[in-house]
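Exercise 7.
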Amino acid sequence: MDLMPLVTILMLAIFVGFEIITKVPPTLHTPLMSGSNAISGIAVVGALVVSGADGGTLPSVLGFIAVVLATVNAVGGFLVSHRMLAMFRKKG
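Solution. The predicted structure, written as tokens, is:
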């Protein structure tokens, strides 16, 4: 398997992601965070599929690590969104 195309795609994704995130105005942050949380949920499902597949020990361990990291990302995103939305609630 040739590694160079995969590294190229990774580097392009990092560059495009950085450019997109730095250009987002603060008013759009919460809706985009919700979309990001949905993507993290999909990553959790994909990681569960990989960790449950019968491919050996290494894919199972890497899948488990992916499940943990994607879950932390999704839960953290929901907590941040909840806290941001709480700032806009009326007090009283």
